[in-house]
Design goal:
By secondary structure, this protein is an alpha+beta fold. 22% of the residues lie in helices and 32% in strands. A 6-stranded mixed β-sheet has the order 6-7-8-3-9-10, sandwiched between helices. The protein has a 5-stranded antiparallel β-sheet with strand order 13-12-11-14-20. A 5-stranded antiparallel β-sheet has the order 15-19-16-17-18, with no helix packed on it. Bound molecules: adenosine-5'-diphosphate and magnesium ion. Adenosine-5'-diphosphate binds next to β2 and α1.
Length: 388
C-alpha cells in the first residue's frame, strides 16, 4: 500500500471570502510501507478533516491524493477500499455482533461462507468469539469498540482509518485498548492512520507521527525524534508531560562557549561542544534573544552550589508514586503565582524526597538536552536540523 498526499488543502467556504476556513493547509505525506501513522494536535487543527478526505467523506479543495499510484480525488468512498472506525462506534443496536460485522459484506454480495470465514478470523484476532451473538446493549464500551474494529477488519481494507476511537472509554480501558490496537496492527498487513489529540497515544502507538497545528503540519517524525529533536517550540511543548520549561533568554558566543542569561540574571556558560550545532548566525559574538527549553526530567537537583547550578525556590511538590514533581521559581523570596510566572521551573525526579515550600535548592541542566528556539513567531529550533 502506498499513500501519497500532495499539497492537500481543505477550505470550508464561508458566506463571504473572509469567512473561509482553511481547515487543512498544504498537507504533504508519503507512506510507502506498513506504518502506524498518527495525526496528533490540539482540537480543531484539521486531523479529522484530513482523515475524512482520505476516506472520501470530504472533498479535497486543492491538491492530490494517491493510493497505490492511482489518483483518488474523485473516487467514491466505497471504491477506495479503506475502513474507518470512529469515536462513537455506531453499531446497529438491533443487530448482534455477528450481524453488525456481516452487514457491510452482505451489501457487497460476498458469499455467506466467505463472510463466515472472515468473521471467524476477525473474532479470533480480537478475542471476541463469545460476543458473536450478543447485541451492543449487552456489551461494555471496550467490547463494542472491539466489535467495531472487527467490522473494519472483515472488509479487508488496504488502509485503516481511526478517528479518536478510544476517547469515549475510561482511562483504564483506554490504556488497555491502546495495547490491543497496537497488537492488532502487528497482526495485520495493513497500514493504520490514527487520529488523536492525546500525545501519550501518539507516542506509544505511532511508528510515525504527524504533528499538526491550525491546519499546518509542524513535524513528521518517529516518536523518539519528536521528543529529542523537536523542530519548533510548539512540538517541543506538545510532546512530553509535564511540559518542557521555556524561558526567554539571551545567548552570546564567547570564544568556544555560549553564555546564556536565564531569568533573574542567572548565567550559564556552556562549551559549544556540549550543545548541538547552533546555526552560524547566532555565533557572531553578538547577543541574541532566543527561547530556551529544558524538559523537567533534564533538570537535576544538586546538593550544593556548583559552577553550573542555579538557586531556585520551591513552591510545591507532587508525589506521583514512581516520580516526584518539584515546582520552583528562579525568583527568590517573592510572592508570585508560580505556575504562571515566566521564571518558574518544573523538575521531575525519581525519588520521593519532598521539600517544604520556600526551600532554596540548587538545580542543574543537562547541557546536551538544552533546546533553543528563535524568538520570532516561527519559534524554530536554532540548531542545525541535520545535526541530530
Ligand atoms: P480536529 O479533528 O483536529 O479536531 P477538524 O478537522 O474537525 O479538527 O476541524 C478543523 C477545522 O475546520 C476546525 O477549525 C473546524 O472548526 C473547521 N471545520 C470543520 N468542519 C467544518 C465545516 N463543515 N464548515 C466549516 N468549518 C469546519
Ligand atoms: Mg477530530
Amino acid at each position: 500500500m502506498e499513500l501519497k498526499l500532495i499539497n492537500v488543502s481543505k477550505i470550508y467556504k464561508g458566506k463571504k471570502k473572509n469567512d473561509d476556513v482553511v481547515a487543512v493547509d498544504n498537507f504533504n505525506l508519503t507512506i510507502d510501507k506498513k506504518e502506524f501513522v498518527v495525526f496528533v494536535g490540539p482540537s480543531g487543527c484539521g486531523k479529522s478533516t484530513t482523515l475524512r478526505m482520505i476516506a472520501g467523506l470530504e472533498d479535497i479543495s486543492k491538491g492530490e491524493l494517491y493510493m497505490d499510484g492511482e489518483l483518488m480525488n474523485k473516487v467514491e468512498p466505497k471504491f477506495r477500499n479503506v475502513a474507518m472506525v470512529f469515536q462513537n462506534y455506531a453499531l446497529y443496536p438491533h443487530m448482534t455482533a455477528y450481524q453488525n460485522m456481516a452487514f457491510g459484506l452482505k451489501n457487497m454480495h460476498i458469499p455467506k461462507d466467505e463472510i463466515d470465514k472472515r468473521i471467524n478470523e476477525a473474532v479470533k484476532i480480537l478475542d471476541i468469539e463469545h460476543l458473536l451473538h450478543r447485541k451492543p446493549k449487552a456489551m461494555s464500551g471496550g467490547e463494542r469498540q472491539r466489535v467495531a474494529l472487527g467490522r473494519a477488519i472483515v472488509r479487508t481494507p488496504r488502509l485503516f482509518l481511526l478517528d479518536e476511537p478510544l476517547s469515549n472509554l475510561d482511562a483504564k480501558l483506554r490504556a488497555q485498548m491502546r495495547v490491543e490496537i497496537t497488537k492488532l496492527y502487528d497482526k495485520l498487513d495493513t497500514p493504520f492512520i490514527y487520529v488523536t489529540h492525546d500525545q501519550v497515544e501518539a507516542m506509544t502507538m505511532g511508528t510515525i507521527i504527524v504533528v499538526m497545528r491550525k491546519g499546518v503540519i509542524q513535524q513528521i517524525d518517529r516518536p523518539e525524534n519528536l521528543y529529542d529533536f523537536p523542530k519548533n517550540r510548539f512540538v517541543a511543548g506538545f510532546i512530553g508531560t509535564p511540559q518542557m520549561n521555556f524561558y526567554e533568554v539571551s545567548i552570546k558566543r564567547v570564544l568556544n562557549s555560549i553564555e546564556i542569561t536565564l531569568p533573574e540574571n542567572n548565567k550559564l556558560k556552556v562549551g559549544l561542544v556540549k550543545l548541538r550545532k547552533i546555526k552560524d548566525e547566532y555565533l557572531d559574538g553578538n547577543e541574541h534573544k532566543v527561547i530556551l527549553g529544558i524538559r523537567p526530567e533534564h533538570v537535576h537537583i544538586v546538593s550544593k552550589k556548583q559552577d553550573d547550578s542555579f538557586q531556585v525556590e520551591t513552591t510545591i511538590c507532587e508525589n506521583l508514586g514512581s516520580e516526584t514533581l518539584v515546582y520552583a521559581d528562579f525568583a527568590l523570596g517573592k510572592d508570585k503565582n508560580i505556575r504562571e510566572s515566566t521564571s518558574s521551573i518544573v523538575i521531575k525526579k525519581y525519588d520521593r524526597n519532598l521539600y517544604s515550600p520556600k526551600s532554596n535548592i540548587f538545580v542543574e541542566f543537562e547541557k546536551d538536552k538544552i533546546h533553543l528556539f528563535s524568538s520570532d513567531e516561527k519559534e524554530e529550533t536554532i540548531y542545525q536540523i541535520d545535526d541530530k
